[in-house]
Amino acid sequence: MDKPRYLLATILFVACLTKSVFAPAQIGRPNIIFLLADDLGYSDIEPYGSEVNTPSLSMLAEQGIIFTNYHTAANCAPSRAMLLTGVNNHLAGVPNIPETFTPEQRQSKNYQGVLGDNVVTIATLLEDSGYHTYMAGKWHLGSEPNKLPSARGFERTVALMDSGADNWEQRPYLPIYDQANWFSDGERYSLPDDFYSSRFLIDKTIEFIDENLDDGKPFFAYVPFQAVHIPVQAPKENTEKYLGVYDEGWSKLREDRHQKAIDLGLVSPQSGIKTMSWVLDWSALSKETKKYEAKRMAVYAGMIDAMDFNIGRLIKYLRETNQLENTVFIFTSDNGAEGSGASEPNSFLSQGIAGNLGYNTNYETLGEKGSYNSINPGFTSAAVSPLSFYKFYTGEGGMRVPLIISGETLGENIKFSPSFAWATDVARTVLSLAEVEPAGARYRGKAVLPMTGRDLGPVIRGESSRVYSNEDVIGYELTGHSALFKGDYKLVRNQGPLGDGNWALFDIVNDPGETKDLKQNMPDRFQEMLGDYAKFEQDHGVLPPPAGYSQLRQMAINTLKDRLEIPFLVLILSFLVVLPFFVYAKFNKRQ
């Protein structure tokens, strides 16, 4: 080879070597996939003690770390605000969903129910640092043009704006919506004819990733599933796997899952479990009712099964495209399981409501297209086993959910962590994994709130057993339901109709089922934490609801103001208002 050619070849070789050595500072950062289930209970997946077959999540758990003491908000939009910003939901503008605020609360800039302009999403920070950012799933943080996910850092999106929707077609699931509001890249979107939510969301995620796979940039993909939010629906083949599994009822299932959680090391062998007083006695139900209830739960299990199957499709795609080794997965739920499904779905009133929404409640097609399904508080108590209460309440069942962080890039790590973790920590951990710093006091010319979440990296790597000290305080409030975490203890107050409105103190490490109130045994700690909670309310602009407040009733009032021209809506919303009080009166009558 002559000297000029040799010199050229040397230069090209050095250039390639330089590119391979120095360019991967960006290329080498991990892909991050954030999988968010909706209304999934603490023990609803196999790694947390479920009988539901979830091999994809089990694989992620085996290759990653399971957090056994992770908490989030007790309903959807507040948790999503914290997960995506690392800022407390009250400060981020989302104390609750917007449909539930009183006129007085709406006067506060913090009580809008949509993501505030005073916070920066992790999608924005990641996009600005060189990541592709994708979202496919439920948003529910605002539908105005400047609130859409495409305006909050996501490069490609297909997103549901509402609190929920049908899983088989584009239709609303509650009369508070005229239609199911889907948007794609900022524009209104029509779903395909072969739509099923979990399959579709993974299809779109794969499509987005594939579009830019060859440019060498890492990606952040946010996949907030509709599973297992009402309406609970699943493909027939997934449901059929679980027919007969739930024939022994919810109390037996709750006990079985508790024991499995003990066997797995998720909860202490000394942990207690209590029967929630509003749960019906399974043995007192008719044979026909038991059969129907068991299938309702089979559909619920089938919906989880279908979600896991589609997660497996995504994993397979990443493996086939050589992306899996450099991908970190985060899986969790936005809150605990939903327990407000009607106790008597075959009643005339329940069937009438479903029918006027265009649904049926037939046993034969339960969970399939055109069917409206949910689980009632009985099986919800099993879904959150061994915890107490459920979604909308600040008992552990409403706030403690699975959290799995997995990926080969994390290296060898511990399998379980009892470290307390909070929803805002997910955002901070994502940024840490991506080697991106949180925003400062200003971002893109605007004043923004600081991220308060903690990086869970030290726990994941085994460098520390916890990220919160015994003196750190985490407070939370939802329509008067209240909680404060400090060390191993939790101060909690659940309002009616299921709570008594009184404060209680629990050691949630040794007693996650909240069976032993310690306020009489630990009066000093109890008073100290009451003071901490009062400070939390003041610092975060918490506005206690007025006396007699009901979230469902306020939702009905707000909706009726806008839609009085629809006569049957009055009946529907009236039913929603009185339902919890009917249930409460019914179980009190049995005592």
Which keywords apply here?
Alkaline Phosphatase, subunit A; alpha/beta; globular; disordered N terminus; disordered C terminus; ten-stranded mixed β-sheet; 2 domains; 591 residues; four-stranded antiparallel β-sheet
Euclidean distance between termini CA atoms: 96 Å
Strand count, sense and barrel status of the largest sheet are: 10 strands, mixed
The CATH architecture of the largest domain can be given as 3-Layer(aba) Sandwich
Report low-confidence residues grouped into runs of 5 or more. 1-27, 580-591
What does this structure look like?
This protein is of the alpha/beta class. The chain folds into 2 domains: 31-325 and 337-539, Alkaline Phosphatase, subunit A (3-Layer(aba) Sandwich); 551-590, no CATH class. Helix content is 36%, strand content 13%. It has 18 helices and 18 strands. It has helices at residues 3-22, 24-27, 55-62, 76-85, 103-106, 122-128, 197-211, 236-240, 250-264, 287-320, 348-356, 377-383, 396-399, 423-433, 457-460, 523-539, 551-563, 567-590; strands at residues 31-37, 64-67, 70-71, 132-138, 156-160, 182-184, 187-188, 219-224, 327-333, 403-406, 416-417, 421-422, 442-443, 446-447, 473-478, 481-486, 489-493, 503-507. It has a 10-stranded mixed sheet, with helices on both faces. A 4-stranded antiparallel sheet has the order 15-16-17-18, covered by helices on one side. The chain has a two-stranded parallel ribbon with strand order 3-12. β15 and β16 (481-486) form a beta hairpin. α9 (250-264) runs parallel beside α12. It is globular and about 60 Å long. The protein starts with a helix and ends with a helix.
